[in-house]
Amino acid sequence: MKSFSIALVAVLALIATTAVVRSGDKGESIATAKQAPEQPMEKVEKSDAEWREQLTPEQYRVTREAGTEAPNGKAYKEFKKQGMGTYYCVACGNKLFHSNTKFDSGCGWPSFYDKATAEGIREIEDRSHGMVRTEVVCSMCDAHLGHVFRGEGRTDLPQDVRYCINGVALRFVPADDAAEKSE
CA angle, corner 83, sides to 161 and 102, nearest 5? Predict the structure, then answer.
Protein backbone atom coordinates (compact mmCIF):
# COMPACT_ATOMS: atom_id res chain seq x y z
CA MET A 1 0.00 0.00 0.00
CA LYS A 2 2.85 2.37 0.84
CA SER A 3 4.52 1.86 -2.59
CA PHE A 4 1.15 2.52 -4.31
CA SER A 5 0.82 5.84 -2.42
CA ILE A 6 4.34 6.87 -3.42
CA ALA A 7 3.65 5.98 -7.06
CA LEU A 8 0.37 7.91 -6.98
CA VAL A 9 2.11 11.00 -5.58
CA ALA A 10 4.81 10.73 -8.29
CA VAL A 11 2.19 10.50 -11.06
CA LEU A 12 0.24 13.47 -9.68
CA ALA A 13 3.45 15.54 -9.47
CA LEU A 14 4.26 14.67 -13.09
CA ILE A 15 0.77 15.72 -14.21
CA ALA A 16 1.02 19.02 -12.32
CA THR A 17 4.47 19.76 -13.80
CA THR A 18 3.24 18.98 -17.32
CA ALA A 19 0.27 21.32 -16.87
CA VAL A 20 2.56 24.20 -15.84
CA VAL A 21 4.93 23.57 -18.75
CA ARG A 22 2.07 23.41 -21.23
CA SER A 23 0.48 26.60 -19.91
CA GLY A 24 3.87 28.29 -20.07
CA ASP A 25 4.33 27.23 -23.69
CA LYS A 26 0.85 28.31 -24.71
CA GLY A 27 0.38 31.21 -22.32
CA GLU A 28 -0.95 34.66 -23.02
CA SER A 29 0.66 37.49 -24.85
CA ILE A 30 1.68 40.92 -23.72
CA ALA A 31 -1.20 43.12 -24.86
CA THR A 32 -0.11 45.48 -27.62
CA ALA A 33 -1.77 48.76 -28.51
CA LYS A 34 -1.20 51.19 -31.37
CA GLN A 35 -1.44 54.27 -29.18
CA ALA A 36 -0.69 55.20 -25.62
CA PRO A 37 -3.69 54.80 -23.30
CA GLU A 38 -5.09 57.82 -21.52
CA GLN A 39 -3.34 58.09 -18.18
CA PRO A 40 -5.61 57.70 -15.16
CA MET A 41 -5.75 60.91 -13.13
CA GLU A 42 -7.16 59.34 -9.98
CA LYS A 43 -7.33 55.94 -8.34
CA VAL A 44 -9.11 53.36 -10.54
CA GLU A 45 -11.60 51.32 -8.55
CA LYS A 46 -13.83 48.67 -10.08
CA SER A 47 -15.91 45.83 -8.76
CA ASP A 48 -14.68 42.27 -9.05
CA ALA A 49 -17.27 41.70 -11.81
CA GLU A 50 -16.01 44.73 -13.77
CA TRP A 51 -12.40 43.52 -13.58
CA ARG A 52 -13.46 40.03 -14.69
CA GLU A 53 -15.34 41.50 -17.65
CA GLN A 54 -12.39 43.68 -18.72
CA LEU A 55 -9.49 41.25 -18.23
CA THR A 56 -8.80 37.79 -19.63
CA PRO A 57 -8.90 35.01 -17.03
CA GLU A 58 -5.08 34.92 -16.88
CA GLN A 59 -4.77 38.71 -16.61
CA TYR A 60 -7.36 38.65 -13.83
CA ARG A 61 -5.57 35.82 -11.96
CA VAL A 62 -2.24 37.63 -12.12
CA THR A 63 -3.29 41.26 -11.58
CA ARG A 64 -6.24 40.89 -9.20
CA GLU A 65 -5.27 37.69 -7.33
CA ALA A 66 -1.48 38.26 -7.18
CA GLY A 67 -0.80 35.26 -9.38
CA THR A 68 2.34 34.49 -11.35
CA GLU A 69 2.43 33.41 -14.96
CA ALA A 70 4.59 30.45 -15.91
CA PRO A 71 8.22 31.37 -16.65
CA ASN A 72 9.49 31.48 -20.24
CA GLY A 73 5.97 31.67 -21.64
CA LYS A 74 4.63 33.36 -24.74
CA ALA A 75 4.57 36.83 -23.14
CA TYR A 76 8.24 36.55 -22.18
CA LYS A 77 9.25 35.41 -25.66
CA GLU A 78 7.38 38.38 -27.15
CA PHE A 79 8.98 40.75 -24.63
CA LYS A 80 12.45 39.69 -25.75
CA LYS A 81 11.57 40.58 -29.38
CA GLN A 82 9.83 43.91 -28.72
CA GLY A 83 11.73 47.01 -29.75
CA MET A 84 11.52 50.52 -28.37
CA GLY A 85 8.32 51.56 -26.66
CA THR A 86 6.52 51.95 -23.37
CA TYR A 87 4.84 49.40 -21.10
CA TYR A 88 1.55 50.28 -19.40
CA CYS A 89 -0.65 48.52 -16.83
CA VAL A 90 -2.98 46.17 -18.69
CA ALA A 91 -5.74 46.91 -16.18
CA CYS A 92 -5.81 50.73 -16.07
CA GLY A 93 -3.31 52.07 -18.62
CA ASN A 94 -0.92 53.62 -16.08
CA LYS A 95 2.61 54.13 -17.47
CA LEU A 96 5.01 51.67 -15.83
CA PHE A 97 8.26 51.08 -17.75
CA HIS A 98 10.20 52.20 -20.83
CA SER A 99 11.89 49.69 -23.10
CA ASN A 100 15.26 51.43 -22.71
CA THR A 101 15.38 50.01 -19.14
CA LYS A 102 14.44 46.44 -20.06
CA PHE A 103 16.98 43.63 -20.04
CA ASP A 104 17.13 39.85 -20.22
CA SER A 105 17.85 38.74 -16.67
CA GLY A 106 17.50 35.07 -17.57
CA CYS A 107 14.73 34.58 -14.99
CA GLY A 108 11.96 33.82 -17.52
CA TRP A 109 9.91 36.98 -16.90
CA PRO A 110 10.19 40.51 -18.32
CA SER A 111 12.77 42.50 -16.37
CA PHE A 112 13.49 46.22 -16.04
CA TYR A 113 16.11 48.06 -13.98
CA ASP A 114 14.04 51.24 -13.52
CA LYS A 115 10.43 52.39 -13.59
CA ALA A 116 9.05 54.98 -16.05
CA THR A 117 7.93 57.42 -13.37
CA ALA A 118 8.44 57.70 -9.64
CA GLU A 119 4.66 57.55 -9.10
CA GLY A 120 3.87 54.66 -11.49
CA ILE A 121 4.22 51.78 -9.06
CA ARG A 122 4.04 51.07 -5.34
CA GLU A 123 6.16 48.60 -3.45
CA ILE A 124 4.70 46.44 -0.68
CA GLU A 125 6.44 43.98 1.65
CA ASP A 126 5.36 40.46 0.66
CA ARG A 127 5.79 37.68 3.23
CA SER A 128 3.94 34.99 1.26
CA HIS A 129 5.38 31.56 0.42
CA GLY A 130 7.69 31.56 3.46
CA MET A 131 9.97 34.37 2.25
CA VAL A 132 10.27 38.14 2.37
CA ARG A 133 10.09 39.90 -0.99
CA THR A 134 8.94 43.27 -2.31
CA GLU A 135 5.76 43.13 -4.37
CA VAL A 136 5.28 45.67 -7.15
CA VAL A 137 1.73 46.94 -7.79
CA CYS A 138 0.28 49.58 -10.10
CA SER A 139 -0.15 52.80 -8.13
CA MET A 140 -3.45 53.64 -9.84
CA CYS A 141 -5.40 50.35 -9.68
CA ASP A 142 -3.38 48.12 -7.31
CA ALA A 143 -2.84 45.49 -10.01
CA HIS A 144 -0.20 42.96 -8.98
CA LEU A 145 2.67 43.28 -11.46
CA GLY A 146 5.45 41.17 -9.96
CA HIS A 147 8.36 41.75 -7.57
CA VAL A 148 11.47 43.92 -7.33
CA PHE A 149 14.86 42.57 -6.24
CA ARG A 150 17.74 44.78 -5.13
CA GLY A 151 21.35 44.02 -4.36
CA GLU A 152 21.75 40.90 -6.49
CA GLY A 153 25.24 42.02 -7.50
CA ARG A 154 24.40 43.05 -11.06
CA THR A 155 27.29 45.04 -12.45
CA ASP A 156 25.95 45.01 -16.03
CA LEU A 157 23.21 47.57 -15.26
CA PRO A 158 23.18 51.25 -14.30
CA GLN A 159 21.61 50.21 -11.00
CA ASP A 160 21.50 46.87 -9.18
CA VAL A 161 17.70 46.57 -9.37
CA ARG A 162 15.53 43.99 -11.13
CA TYR A 163 11.82 44.57 -11.55
CA CYS A 164 10.61 41.06 -12.38
CA ILE A 165 7.20 41.61 -14.02
CA ASN A 166 4.46 39.30 -15.29
CA GLY A 167 4.12 39.87 -19.03
CA VAL A 168 0.33 39.49 -18.99
CA ALA A 169 0.14 42.48 -16.62
CA LEU A 170 1.66 44.72 -19.31
CA ARG A 171 0.38 46.55 -22.39
CA PHE A 172 3.12 47.49 -24.87
CA VAL A 173 2.94 50.53 -27.15
CA PRO A 174 5.72 50.62 -29.77
CA ALA A 175 7.74 53.84 -29.99
CA ASP A 176 7.01 54.27 -33.69
CA ASP A 177 3.53 55.44 -32.68
CA ALA A 178 3.28 59.24 -32.92
CA ALA A 179 1.72 59.44 -29.44
CA GLU A 180 4.70 57.57 -27.96
CA LYS A 181 7.23 59.81 -29.68
CA SER A 182 5.71 62.92 -28.14
CA GLU A 183 6.04 61.60 -24.56
Answer: 0
Predicted confidence (pLDDT) per residue in 142-181, tens digit: 999 999 999 999 999 999 999 999 999 999 999 975 444 4
- Are 89 and 138 spatial neighbours (Cβ–Cβ below 8 Å)? yes
> pLDDT tens-digit profile of 42-81?
999 999 999 999 999 999 999 999 999 999 999 999 999 9
Residues that are catalytic: 164
Distances (CA, A) of 118 to 48, 95, 121, 137, 138: 28, 10, 7, 13, 12
End-to-end Cα distance, the chain: 67
| Dist CA 155 CA 120 (whole Å) | 25
- Number of other residues whose CB lies within 10 A of the CB of residue 47: 8
Predicted TM-score of the model (pTM): 0.80
For the sheet with 85-89, list strands across it.
31-32, 170-174, 85-89, 95-98
Integer CA distances (angstroms), 77 to 54, 56, 86, 87, 178, in order: 24, 19, 17, 15, 26
CA nearest to 143, candidates 87, 75, 94: 94
For residue 148, the SS3 value is strand
